[in-house]
Design goal:
Helix content: 25-40%
Strand content: 25-35%
CATH topology of one domain: Immunoglobulin-like
CATH class of one domain: Mainly Beta
CATH architecture of one domain: Sandwich
Radius of gyration: 36 Å
Strand order of the largest sheet: 16-17-20-19-23-18
Distance between the termini: 118 Å
Structural class: alpha/beta
Largest sheet: 6 strands, mixed
Number of strands: 34
Shape: elongated
């Protein structure tokens, strides 16, 4: 899909133009790329006199295209939710009014060439313009026609979106008949995917790539989310309607970056380049959320249903109990008992959440089966409260997968900036353009919302204008959640949810790692000098397991498996910090029963109980060795009583395990030389010598006796 970055009207009376692009395809395949650089205005008011669209078209096919022309088409005003959803799907509406076709310069493009388009139409309801007789939502289509070689004239590219008209151009401004709709909006601060592949306790974090650094800098995705919300911070009314939903995994990642980090590459790890950007962004976020509503997402936006099934749900509390970490990094306390998870949850998981203190789920209405017509809060059969996001606004933000019309060439609405325009249109519809009774609106964009800073800033300022026009009235999330639930429902966990859940082999591997960590933690003890709890040492690895279940992996084949492999490698590295050192030269025993020296090393910040295993070495017998406690961060020599039953060279393998059997580090193999006999060997030698003497004496006796005879 091509990118689309739309212009935004900063206020009803002042239009600000910013670039945006929109890609399109033809029914025959990709022929033209349509890039719109200006759409002005995005919301039409009584003072709007013209609508201007400029941009470029590029021939991305393999044929020459001639007779390139463009025109704007406006459909009939949509008045029902069904009509709005149809328009949001990207399906082009029938034109109720349109401009004349205007030639694109040049009108003939060879493959790879680019032409310019510019359409300006008067908004005075003239026969040659676009007619908007009253306030409402109007489907707008930018239609590009052309004739490719070896084909006929056809629509080769288009952009379809909704254009809100608050007041008909040139007419007396209309005032909404109803009271303003209460409006609350979640503002997601989350990464597109987890980045940390290794973050050992007390060590340097390693990221999968350095793309996050670009997202944190000006022009980046996460910078846009913070900068745009900061731009309207002075609007106290609008700010009270926002509640920032933060992913603690993102906060941990940025915090680790700010202290210096590494990036994994094909050639090994290299220093990351985003420490300064991370420090600046984190400070900007702290200032933004100070005194504001904040809720915490599950850690790494985890698939909670899959996570609850790993090792009896042991990891679920760690994914939920992140308030202390958010408070430490941002200086604010998230609202208690409120959770915004991605997707549906099965009933066992809902019950587990209730046991952990969750009281309210921010819910996608499409996941609920309810007999009531409530669009607000409902009570689930598990006792949890489900606060429904507005389904129409959510459709605008997220969109359907595209048009149901196979011949449509419109840009799919999952393009982020087209989706933002449709979300804005849906809010205008809820705010009085529908003519229906108002109701509280909870706007919930996608968790990984993507749009430019200009788009998001203009979006918020446009909402501020809706507030000034008494179409919307800001309502804090706390006030919305204080209202009584008005119905009951059951959350549906469908076969499709099962199919997109964390793959079974991944959760099986997670359970295996969790078992190993449980045994390892049982062998660890607090070192009196280091004063580090064993759980602290293992916590980074448990967070790595939670990242294995991130909802972001649903869209990337094999990503969860890769994440699980990283967690397994982290576990191996942790176990490798307790090991046996291999001697640089063979060891010689001073006597047949001399102690065997073994060199042990523990680089963990905790004490650990280890068991020494010499394996089965023919000719060498070792006494049973009691378990040893290795102090934190130290190495030492253990002397194991052993007896060589023969002289010569022995190949000895020494390994370490926990008392529970978890193998630590790598086995050490070394040569052992014995130059003296052991007791058994000496006894056998003496016995053999005595037998030889007796046999020799017997033979001499027989010979002497024979001569005498």
């Amino acid at each position: 899909m091509k990118r689309f970055a739309a212009t935004v009207l900063v206020a009803f009376l002042v239009a600000v133009t910013v670039p945006f692009t929109a890609g399109a395809q033809s029914a025959e395949g990709s022929r033209l790329q349509l890039d719109i650089t200006q759409l002005n205005p995005r919301v039409v008011t009584t003072n709007s006199t013209t609508l201007n669209v400029t941009g470029t078209v590029t021939n991305v096919g393999d044929r020459r295209i001639t007779d390139l022309q463009v025109r704007l088409e406006l459909g009939e005003k949509v008045t029902t939710e069904k009509q709005v959803r149809t328009a949001m799907s990207g399906r082009a509406a029938a034109a109720a009014s349109s401009t004349e076709f205007i030639d694109i310069e040049p009108s003939t493009l060879q493959p790879g060439e680019t032409g310019k388009l510019s359409v300006t139409v008067r908004l005075d309801n003239a026969s040659s313009g676009l007619r908007m007789s009253s306030a409402g939502l109007y489907p707008l289509l930018v239609n590009v026609n052309g004739t490719p070689d070896y084909g006929g004239a056809a629509r080769l590219a288009s952009l379809s979106t909704l254009l809100p008209v608050v007041s008909a151009p040139g007419r007396t401004p209309t005032t909404p008949d109803s009271t303003p709709a209460p409006f609350t909006m979640l503002w997601p601060i989350a990464d597109t995917r987890p980045r940390i592949v290794s973050a050992p306790f007390g060590g340097t974090a390693v990221l999968s790539d350095d793309d996050l650094a670009a997202d944190l800098r000006p022009g980046g995705r996460l910078h846009a989310l913070v900068a745009s919300a900061s731009a309207i911070r002075g609007n106290g009314q609008l700010s009270r309607a926002l509640c920032f939903a933060v992913d603690p995994d993102l906060l941990d990642t940025v915090d680790a970056m700010s202290r210096g980090y590494q990036v994994r590459t094909a050639g090994g790890t290299v220093p990351g380049a985003g420490a300064e950007a991370a420090q600046t962004w984190l400070e900007d976020l702290r200032q933004l959320v100070a005194g504001q509503c904040v809720i915490a997402m599950p850690y790494a936006d985890a698939d909670l249903t899959s996570l609850s099934k790993v090792h009896g749900g042991d990891l679920l509390p760690l994914a939920l109990d992140t308030g202390a970490r958010v408070r430490e990094l941002l200086g604010v306390t998230p609202q208690d008992g409120v959770l915004w998870a991605d997707g549906a949850l099965d009933q066992d998981t809902q019950a587990a959440l209730a046991d952990r203190g969750v009281r309210t789920l921010i819910a996608d209405p499409s996941t609920l089966n309810t007999s009531s017509q409530s669009s607000g809060a409902v009570t689930l059969d598990t006792g949890l409260r489900a606060q429904q996001a507005d389904s129409l606004v959510q459709t605008g933000f997220g969109g359907s997968s595209g048009s149901t019309d196979e011949t449509s060439t419109a840009t799919p609405v999952d393009d982020p900036d087209v989706a933002a325009q449709n979300g804005l249109a849906a809010l205008a519809f809820r705010g009085g353009l529908s003519g229906a009774a108002v109701r509280p609106v909870l706007a919930a964009p996608p968790h990984r919302w993507t749009a430019s800073v200009d788009e998001l800033t203009g979006f918020l300022r446009e909402i501020g204008e809706f507030v000034d026009q008494r179409m919307l009235t800001p309502q804090p999330l706390s006030a919305l959640l204080a209202a009584s639930a008005s119905g009951s429902a059951r959350m549906s966990y469908t076969a499709e949810d099962v199919a997109t859940a964390t793959p079974g082999p991944v959760t099986d591997q997670m359970a295996s790692i969790e078992n190993t960590m449980g045994d390892l933690q049982g062998a660890m003890q607090v070192d009196p000098a280091a004063q580090v709890e064993p759980a602290q040492v293992l916590q980074p690895l448990r967070f790595a397991l939670i990242r294995n279940t991130s909802a972001a992996w649903r869209r990337q084949s094999g990503a969860a498996e890769t994440s699980a492999a990283d967690a397994r490698a982290d576990l191996a590295a942790l176990l490798g910090r307790v090991t046996v050192a291999t001697p640089e030269q063979p060891i010689s025993m001073a006597s047949g029963s001399a102690p065997l020296p073994v060199y042990l090393q523990n680089s963990l910040p905790v004490q650990i109980v280890v068991r020494i295993d010499l394996g089965n070495t023919p000719g060498l017998v070792a006494d049973e060795v009691p378990d040893r406690i290795l102090p934190a961060g130290l190495g030492g020599q253990e002397r194991i009583p052993a007896e060589a039953q023969r002289a010569g060279v022995f190949s000895v393998t020494v390994s370490l395990t926990t008392p529970g059997g978890t193998r630590l580090g790598h086995p050490a193999r070394f040569e052992l030389r014995s130059n003296e006999y052991g007791v058994v060997t000496l006894g056998l030698t003496i016995a053999g010598g005595a037998a030889l003497v007796l046999l020799s004496a017997r033979q001499i006796y027989r010979r002497v006796r024979a001569r005498r005879a």
